[in-house]
Amino acid sequence: MASFHHALVLLFLLTVLQVLGRRLPWPMPITYLLGSIAVTFWPGFPRIELDPGFFFLCFVPPLLFADGWLMPLRDFMESKRPILLLSVGLVIFTTLAVGLTAHLLMPDLPLAMAFALGAVVSPTDAVAVGAITHRLKVPARLTAVLNGESLMNDATGLVAFKVALAAVIAGSFSLKAAALDFVILAAGGVGLGLLLAYAIGKLRDFLLSTQNADSQFEVTLSLLTPFAVYLAAEASGVSSILAVVAAGLYSGWRDPLRMEVETRRSAWAVWSFILFWLNGLAFIILGLQFPAILGSLNDRYSPGFLLLVVGAVTFAAILARLVWVFPGAYLPFVLSKKIRSSETPPSWKGVLVSGWAGMRGSITLAAALSIPLTLEDGSDFPGRDTVILLAFGVIVSTLLLQGTTLEPLICKLGLRADDTFARENLLARTAAVESALRYLREAASSPADTDEERAAHALVVAEYEHRLLELTTEGEVKASAKRRLTTGLRHRLQALRAERVAIDELWRKNIITDEAHRPLQHLLDHEESLLAGHAAHVKA
Fold first, then answer.
1. What is the separation, in whole angstroms, between the first and last Cα of the chain?
2. Exposure string over 195-218, b if 16+ CB within 10 A, otherwise e
């Protein structure tokens, strides 16, 4: 019962801090952290004990699965070289730079735990970066690279973190053995994740074909998928992290075309709430643990020394990223004639923004808090509180420093979105209307239709012709959308389905991106739901 009460208290605290945070001039995670630290000084606030293993299982699989689901696969493949350079090369470089810095300043921190700290702070926060880049509409390729990096460096950073913890438990660290373990775990995890996601997809298709599934079933299955994949990978001894990411990528490619309208709308709403809760609660739970963690270190280090180490580790993480991104962006063009002939080098402004977009967030938190409390012999896990405290400092520092200055930097550089989204959006809308118009013209009124139905059919055809004219001139206006709810419901529903087929086909053929496809799909789902509800009301 106490655990249930604690869950309610945490959700209430999250709600209160969310309201307060909207009035404060810094990123929302800072409000979560400071607010949760503040409530620990209230004697009546319950003391919440943290189970590291349960915390990791509860938070990491759904967060990584959602990142994979939302990642546009076409954008990922087109930008795979810079994404892999950042998510693998930069993760390893950051792990070494931060780990060596921490071990140099704190010689009593085991080297493997210092590298665990480097691995845990290497992933960037997709939510914090995405909120800024989406609002300012930066160039499409930069958005794709940052989103893809946030997804993949979560995975590679956590795999490196697991390898470092295994070295601590084993009592020794071998770079060669760690690299081999990394490759084996990664390959096995990706393969298993794709296999399980494919099998779950086939199960959903079978149940839908037998009409034994509904939106509640599918949404529930989608929520269970990341946990099932994670636990299966853990039992198989491969990377559970990469297995979940691979499953998310496959599901994000499959689900938009296979889900029914109501299922898609329900899943989107449910997952939005889940991600809001998990991202917020991760920061709140860390804030609640912070006073106890700080207290455990007071007898070994002075507050001034801890601040110095936090500053040095944060500086190492930021500098490592800035040092890496420029060579990583331009050296491939210097070394490869093929790349020079087929691609355009990125602008230095975009590379600088990429280098400064290094805020850390919920994945770093979840990983740090998942460090076991004790070793197998019952002794305290060495350096656990130190790593958590330093990870906390890096998160707060990067959110305050980079999170508050990234937007002014983008504005100062004059970095603006290109015409990719506008062009693909117009292409998709035009193709959808043309497809619906072709269907309506081919579906001539049957002799059994009444005069009213034939008139309604003619009206719908005229409206789509008008929409096509608007799209090819000044763009679709809102007035035409309102008229679609009044007459010709059957024809309108069929025309909307033809529109969906057209935009899905453009997406499947990689002619438009998720950024253009997903909003149009949501719009068509919304219109179809309205029309279906109106049709049911008319029949009643």
1. 46
2. bbbeebbeebeeebeeeebebeeb
CA–CA separation, 407 and 25 (whole Å): 13
In this structure, what token pair is assigned to residue 310? 């936090």
For 21-48, what is each residue's pLDDT tens digit? 888 877 788 888 888 888 888 877 777 7
Residue ranges, the chain, pLDDT below 50: 1, 475-486, 534, 537-540
Confidence at residue 132, expressed as pLDDT on a 0 to 100 scale: 66
Q: From residue 517, how far is each of 24, 425, 520 by CA, in Å?
A: 34, 8, 5
Whole-number Å distance between alpha carbons of 126 and 154? 9
pLDDT of residue 478: 43
Using an 8 Å Cβ cutoff, are 185 and 239 in contact?
Answer: yes
Phi/psi of residue 380, nearest 5 degrees: -60, 140
Residue 134: predicted pLDDT? 65
Report yes or no on whether pTM surpasses 0.85.
no
How far apart are the C-alpha atoms of 168 and 77, rounded to whole Å?
A: 36
Residue from 255, 205, 283 nearest 18 by CA: 283
Chain center to CA of 35: 25
Report which residue type is found at 443.
Answer: A
pLDDT at residue number 1: 44
Residue position matching structure tokens 């990123």: 27
Q: Rounded to whole angstroms, how far apart are CA atoms 388 and 367?
A: 9
With tokens 């990706």, the residue in question is 190
Give strand pairing partners of 380.
Answer: 374
**Which tokens go with 411?**
């504005």
Q: Which domains does the chain have, with CATH numbers?
A: 2-413 (1.20.1530.20), 420-539 (no CATH)
Q: Which helix (H) or strand (E) holds 432?
A: helix 420-442
Strand stretches in 80-142, DSSP E = none
Distance set, CA 132 to CA 125, 353, 407, 411 (Å):
12, 11, 6, 11
- Residue 154 carries which side chain, given as an amino acid letter? D
The widest CA-to-CA distance across the chain, in whole angstroms, is: 90
The alpha-helical segments, DSSP class H, found in 137-174 are 140-170
**Residue of 147, 121, 360, 142 lying closest to 248 (CA atoms):** 147
CB neighbours of residue 323 within 10 Å? 14
